[in-house]
Write a structure and sequence with these properties.
- This protein folds into 2 domains: 3-81, 434 Repressor (Amino-terminal Domain) (Orthogonal Bundle); 89-125 and 156-284, Endonuclease, Chain A, CATH 3.30.870.
- It is 52% helix and 15% strand.
- The protein has helices spanning 10-26, 30-37, 41-49, 56-66, 70-81, 96-109, 128-137, 142-155, 174-177, 183-197, 247-263, 267-284; strands at 3-4, 52-53, 88-91, 112-117, 166-172, 202-207, 221-225, 232-236, 240-244.
Length: 285
């Protein structure tokens, strides 16, 4: 039988998302799936929310019913085998899809998110044009660039929906002065930041340069808080990343957030700086 999850791990969230999307893509209703597997509807529903972890055997039965084979079957079975493990390190480009699934589910389930982005605009605040420029500069194909821009736009719904997540973006000032894409793309991005900063659930603070050493110099990170499970820290790098739910690590990054915010401009001063950056770009364009 599936085991209850006391700590909903990032892997468990990724597995839940994969089960939910696979079932929906197969056209099978939750009740029909439960009937075919000989399980209660509540059990399958809990699989799709990450509240219960199905065994690898349960997942294998589910995949057989859904007609999933090959690499996708192996991917989901691998998630199931390790779903209860707290830390999750993915290495190399093949790991990115699973890591992205974990991040999307963390965003979807979070009650609050804090992101420290020293060198670029945080993903949840990126315009489609900015996202495309980043992907294109990374050498991705036009199809992959469009796919990532679409996914990025969908992820942003968590801060725009009726019950939005509280999102705090701590951004290095370099993110405003660097030119990602064409001047119109960057100008549109700056205006979008100003638009989002007006929302009650979004706080944007810029950290100026030359403020001395602080924990953020160690690299970018995201801190997720959940209403129903312990917090998680996510480190995303170019071709690898990690989710770390260890309580001591989480507390250390909460302290890092506090220190970075002490050095950051206030939200009001940040808006003034972004407005000034947009005006300078308009004059130079």
């Amino acid at each position: 039988m599936p085991a209850d999850t006391i700590r909903v791990t990032p892997r468990a969230r990724a597995l839940a998302a994969a089960i939910r999307s696979t079932r929906e893509n197969s056209g099978i209703s939750g009740r029909e799936l439960s009937k075919r597997l000989g399980l209660s509807h509540g059990t399958v529903s809990h699989w799709e929310t990450g509240r219960r972890i199905p065994t690898p055997e349960d997942v294998a039965s589910f995949l057989a019913v859904a007609g999933v084979t090959g690499k996708e079957r192996q991917r989901l079975l691998d998630l199931a085998r390790h779903a209860s493990e707290p830390n999750w390190l993915t290495v190399g480009m093949p790991g990115i899809p699973q890591q992205l699934a974990g991040a999307v589910e963390c965003e979807r389930s979070a009650s609050a998110i804090v992101e420290w982005a020293p060198m670029a605009v945080p993903g949840l605040l990126q315009t489609a044009g900015y996202s495309r420029a980043v992907s294109a500069a990374g050498g991705l194909t036009s199809d992959e660039t469009e796919r990532r821009a679409t996914v990025r736009a969908g992820r942003r719904e968590i801060i725009l929906r009726d019950d939005p997540v509280r999102f705090t973006a701590l951004i290095g000032e370099h993110s405003l002065s660097d030119r990602i894409g064409t001047p119109p793309v960057m100008l549109d991005q700056l205006h979008f930041l100003l638009e989002l900063a007006e929302r009650d659930n979004v706080t944007i603070q810029v950290v100026p340069p030359r403020v001395g050493w602080h924990p953020g110099l160690a690299g970018p990170f995201v801190l997720y808080d959940f209403p129903d499970s312990p917090a998680v820290v996510h480190f995303e790098h170019y071709s690898s990343g990690a989710f770390v739910p260890d309580d001591d690590d989480v507390q250390a990054y909460r302290q890092a957030v506090s220190r970075i915010r002490e050095l950051a401009l206030s939200p009001a001063d940040t808006i003034d700086l972004i407005t000034e950056s947009a005006s300078e770009l308009e004059r130079s364009a």
